Amino acid sequence: MHQHYDSATNTQVNTDEQGVVRGLVPDEPSVSGAATAQLAAQEYLEQHAELLGVEPAALENLTGAREAQPVDAGSEFRIHTEKQQFDTTTVAYDQTYFGLPVWEASVAVHVKQDPYRVIAATSTRHPDVSVERPPEAALHRFKDIDEKTLAQLLGLKPGSKAAKSLKITGTRLVVYQYEAAKRQPGAEVPTEDELTPHEHPTLSLPPVPASITEDGHYVSAVVHFQLGTQEYPTLNWRAIIDVTTGAVLHLLAFVDDVKALVFEEDPITTAPSGPLPSAASALLNPKRAKVSLLDLNPPSGGTQALQGSIVKVGDVELPTVVPPTEPTGVDFDFDARTNDFAAANAYYHCDRFFRLVKSMGFNLASYFGPTPFPSAVDHRGFGGTGNVINAHCLGLPGGTGISLTAFALADLGDLVHPIGIACDWRVVLHELGGHGILYPHVHSPNFGFSHSAGDSFAAILNDPVSVAPDRFVTFPWVNIGRRHDRPVNGWAWYGLNDVGGYSTEQILATTHFRIYRSLGGDAPLPVGLGSREFAARFVCYLILRAVGSLTPATNPPKVDQGWVQALLAADLGDWTSEGHIGGAYGKVIRWAFEKQGLYQPAGTMPPVSTVGQPPPVDVYIDDGRHGEYQYQPVHWECQAIWNRRHPDGMTTHEDPVVGKNNYAYVKIKNRGTQQATNVVVKAFHANPTIGLVYPTDWTPMTTAQKAAPNVAPNNTAEKIVGPFKWKPTQVGHECMFMIVSAKADPSNVSNFLAGETIPEWRLVPHDNNIGQRNVTPVPFHNHKQWMQAVAKLRFTLKNPHRRAAKMRLAPTLPRVLAKRGWKVELLSGKGEPIKRGTLKLAAGESRQIAMKLVPGEPFTAAEVAKWRDAVIRIEGYADGILIGGMTYPIARERKA
Questions:
Q1: CA–CA–CA angle 400, 562, 73 (5° rounding)
Q2: Per residue in 580-639, pLDDT tens?
Q3: Is residue 223's pLDDT more than 70?
Q4: Could you give the CA distance from residue 253 to residue 395 in angstroms, rounded to a whole number?
Q5: Alpha-carbon separation of residue 858 from 21, 579, 825, 861 (angstroms)
Q6: Are the C-beta atoms of 695 and 677 separated by less than 8 Å?
Q7: Quick one: which of 516, 673, 523, 517 has its CA closest to 600?
Q8: What pLDDT is attached to residue 732?
Q9: Is the pLDDT score of 179 beyond 80?
Q10: Least confident of 381-385, 541-545, 840-844
Q11: Helices (H), 473-580
Q12: DSSP assignment letter at 676
């Protein structure tokens, strides 16, 4: 992907290697006065047709329906669907020719509501479509195609068992672009670490005739049919057949699976030296946990089955292994190495996944489309003997939803006492979180550019509590070489291993995991568990929402032709069920793909092996990360912001004086590839508070903003902006904030409308345009005066969340002082000790906090000058999530 900025429309424009526009992201949402999302989308397309590279004539029939048979019409766009998720509607228009949809070619506009405003547009359109109209006789043949004709076209032997079992379930006409490499999925090439290749069901198709040319477009029939194989007794397929010649241009079975994978709370995840899957039940049994099987149907005739409203476990595929039942009131307790134990796990983990999706605010019925609930699960299937290490997720006819999720074994060493791979939460996440969510939206088990995002779910959701010895092995119990820390050299987007399938899935998982790490996944344990869990949940929500915005026509053929834009649009939407305003993480998402090699300079030829370019303009306030987004827990100590008591331009920080004019300064830089122009810095202050909310708690300084000089690109210059006059009102100190913006690089605050608020902890560390300084030196003259000065300090603890939260304050002293027995006691505003630093606050509630130093062994100012960590730092947590803090350096300029 390449990126440039269109100054006329203030839009970031993403293009592919051929220069075709694949995505538009306006600096600020494009507000429309339209009465519906579809009208707003239509208005946006008409206004930006030239920017998208679309001829205006192609937009003249946007409200028209797609045709079932060819009509006299050229290349144009027609409405396909509206998909609403939370506060955002995706309006998708299929590219058509002869009125027929062009396969996987579309323009989609993402519209946020109240008021309607466009936040992004994506395009998978084909720039050059030239199609010949088939003869009427050929069209008639496919209008009424039967099983006998289809069997012949597929190359099945007449009268064979396969030909007799063939059953057509649906047909329709499209315009399809032929690519020989995509005719049938082949065996996936294993990486150097993987054990075996991955094989898809295929047929021995007749060769295509010479008239079928690479990249040519053909009016074709999409035929959905059922055809069983020895391995998959019940299997739905899709064939795309050229109407004129009868050549099969594309064939796909709606199935996908993984090999030698393991479960989430496996012995390695919970204990680095835990038993392997080859271990006996005596070693595996202690790792079992007692859990509730939720929502089971009431017992029938005194017998309880593993069936509920969301999942039902049954014997669907060979081998014949009937799931267990128990008398009413009896638990499903079995040895680990039994099929019955696998059945209980199959119910628990599959039900657990669907409940996870539901808990994030997605409606199961609408998100999973025609998938029938309860969803069918076979704990011991896979056809034949089932003695393989594997699992698969089968699709409905047309691939429109999930038909069956089936599991085989996790170990082949003891088939008398089998251990099922259904026990593995990670495998379930790969199957249902990978293929299961793709079926209803793109009508395929796979992305166009990657196997799926299943590995991302497995890696991210398991990381917060994992103690596996290697954090970056995606499936640690049986290590088959799948990782989510792949280096850009060799594993870049458009690099040597970006070849689709599992290889590209590892690149995708590495990128998604980088987003997770930035959002809190790298928070240290155990104190950072809440931050890790929040980050894991949020990134998985973004993936789910992004997939939910896709259609069969917008299934990204390349990562930069739909997937990055889908994630960015998902972030811009509000997570209404959780109360999180959108638009906080787009810069992190873009950076994560950049670090994995995307956004190369124009003209770069694959294979890519280096980090991509930053945005064309990327102004920032350096918080120590040089404008990037590695996890930064202490985001309130930005040294690029400082205060002076006089407007003298000096660069040493002076503690603000209450009630008098003070003068703030900030340093800004530009890591972009182009000069930053129209640069503006806005300045704010706030009472000393942990848990601040923007803009509620932020007050503009007296000098609210200043124009700044242009900033040279590539970090080659640093500009000091100031002074910003302001008058502190709080005894002790106040928090200072600076926001820099430039043409082509607005701050994330531009995403928020009046009345929308966001906690500081979500905003500041994920937008390099913003800097925050909650730092006040406490002079050390002698122990008594220093302790008295600390006792006078006050700050506010605020719950920034929209629900009650358990708050915790965690003070830390310099390590030398802690060793000498010094301690910090936290007191409420009334002087009462806060036990264990913990208290409960309602949504938005605040509490005044004071500190008291408990002395230990004495020290001197000379010693302080030698300490590298001469600060008292107070970190604040809400339900385990780090929400901010205060920092008090021990001033060292005077001697005791």
A1: 75
A2: 999 999 999 999 999 999 999 988 999 999 999 999 999 999 999 999 999 999 999 999
A3: yes
A4: 8
A5: 67, 49, 18, 10
A6: no
A7: 673
A8: 61
A9: yes
A10: 381-385
A11: 488-491, 501-516, 529-548, 564-572
A12: B
The 10 Å CB-count burial string (b at 16+, else e) for 670-680 is bbbbbbbeebb
| Three-state SS sequence of 648-669 | CCCCCCCCCCCCCCEEEEEEEE
The dihedrals phi and psi of 682, each to the nearest 5 degrees, come to -110, 145
Mean pLDDT over residues 672-701, rounded? 96
DSSP 590: H
Tokens linked to 287 = 């790792």
pLDDT for the residue numbered 436: 97
Segment 753-762, tens digit of pLDDT = 989 999 999 9
Question: Are 166 and 150 spatial neighbours (Cβ–Cβ below 8 Å)?
Answer: yes
Structure tokens at 607: 């294979």
Residue among 454, 421, 456, 459 nearest 437 (CA): 454
Nearest CA to 76 out of 92, 91, 97 is that of 97
Of 400, 383, 487, 501, nearest to 444 by C-alpha is: 400
Please compute the mean of the pLDDT values over residues 487-492 and round it to a whole number: 98
Q: Rounded CA gap, 134 and 607, in Å?
A: 40
- pLDDT at residue 846, as a whole number: 95
Sign of CA dihedral 748, 751, 752, 757: negative
pLDDT value at residue 11: 93
Q: Is 273 exposed, middle or buried (0-12, 13-18, 19+ CB in 10 A)?
A: exposed
Rg for the chain, CA atoms, rounded:
30
Cα separation, 506 vs 502, in Å, equals: 6
Non-local (6+) Cβ contacts of 567 within 8 A are: 542, 543, 546, 589
Q: Do 304 and 325 contact (CB within 8 A), yes or no?
A: yes
Dump the DSSP string for 857-879: S---HHHHTT-TT-EEEEEEEET
Strand positions, DSSP E, 86-235: 88-97, 100-112, 117-123, 167-177, 217-226
Least confident of 121-130, 230-239, 721-730: 230-239
